[in-house]
Design brief:
Mean pLDDT: 91
Structural class: mainly beta
Number of helices: 2
Distance between the termini: 55 Å
Radius of gyration: 20 Å
Number of strands: 20
Oligomer: single chain
Shape: globular
Largest sheet: 9 strands, antiparallel
Order of helices and strands: HEEEEEHEEEEEEEEEEEEEEE
Length: about 350
């Protein structure tokens, strides 16, 4: 048998390394300090400059993320909260405001956005521990990749019951990651479900001149206030993304100080995620931009519009692709620079 491309790459790298995991790996880790104590995670390192943690105990969402050494994800002042410390119904239904951190927080599946009808801000899904069913490095795939799979169940005997099956992939040596989700109605009645992918960017990805484009048109420009000046939080704006079969939201930050430039693309199927919500908070000590693909519109009062109906046994599937690039990586310097 003639070796295929993946087989030959695997064989060649086996000759060059004592352990291929020195190039790319998925490793189990457990956080052991402060409010994150006991949180399990999977540390991905693609070998192509993309490194991130999949938080097993927080819905298989993505916590810290680095690209070519640059931190990209926004981090909450309170850190990575353990699920045992999270009360979604606290603070008048806004408890997630004490826990929203990291590159990706998946919101739903009963509610997204502001509290309504007894459902908390961004629903009850965030910080739900996942059951990890598989993870590792697949060097024999046509394109060798890192992966993790698991399922998250939110079920009530007298209410909505959903199972979210998630697979996260990242090509070895690459600069992209994919979040592949399947939501199944595991209850006895037709239910509406809502989902929103809260993708959070912080400094140095967010600074003067950071801009976001949707399907080729600029929809947000982030300008943090200067020293001694203050700017208010900017209300979220929800955009219809169905002018293209595949939506593409792109965040761009030019090189600044000792930080290289950054382009991040968030792409998916607009038939299943027809809306892209944008939120920016330029206030000091916040400085965040969020790109939030969603399956439901936003009402004028900040609550969510109707979700999508799923009948018993019916599944909804989606693939989000995050791509990272640095147009001027040669300009990067020390890991601490000016904005």
């Amino acid at each position: 048998m003639i070796p295929g491309p993946a087989t030959s790459v695997r064989a060649r790298l086996t000759e060059l390394t004592g352990d291929r995991r020195q190039l790319a790996s998925v490793r189990r880790i457990t956080l052991d300090d402060g409010p994150a104590q006991g949180v399990r995670a999977l540390a991905f390192s693609t070998g192509g400059g993309l490194d991130f943690w999949v938080l097993s105990d927080r819905t298989m969402d993505i916590g810290p993320l680095w690209f070519q050494g640059m931190p990209v994800a926004w981090q909450h002042p309170g850190g990575t909260l353990s699920p045992q410390l999270h009360d979604p119904h606290g603070d008048a239904g806004t408890g997630v405001g004490r826990a929203l951190t990291g590159f990706l927080v998946t919101c739903g599946l009963d509610n997204v956005r502001q509290p309504q009808q007894g459902m908390p801000l961004h629903g009850t899904l965030p910080l739900t521990p996942a059951r990890i069913t598989a993870h590792g490095e697949d060097w024999n795939a046509p394109t060798p990749l890192l992966f993790a799979e698991g399922e998250i169940v939110k079920a009530h005997l007298s209410g909505p019951s959903f199972c979210l099956t998630r697979r996260i992939e990242a090509p070895i040596g690459g600069t992209t990651l994919r979040v592949i989700d399947c939501v199944e109605n595991i209850g006895p009645a037709t239910e509406a479900f809502r989902i929103l992918y809260h993708t959070n960017f912080g400094f140095p990805a967010v600074g003067d001149g950071t801009r976001v484009s949707l399907n080729g048109r600029e929809v947000l420009r982030h300008e943090p206030p200067g020293e001694g000046r203050h700017a208010p939080e900017i209300p979220a704006a929800c955009h219809d993304a169905t002018d293209a079969s595949q939506f593409n939201a792109t965040l761009e930050r030019t090189a600044a100080g000792q930080w290289h430039g950054l382009n991040v693309s968030v792409a998916g199927d607009s038939a299943v995620l027809p809306f892209v919500q944008l939120w920016s908070d330029p206030r000091p000590r916040r400085n965040i931009v969020a790109i939030e693909p969603a399956n439901c519109d936003r009402n004028a009062d900040g609550t969510s519009g109707p979700g999508m109906d799923l009948s018993p046994g019916e599944c909804w599937t989606s693939t989000l692709t995050y791509s990272f690039a640095s147009p001027d990586a040669d300009k990067k310097g020390a890991p601490h620079g000016n904005g």
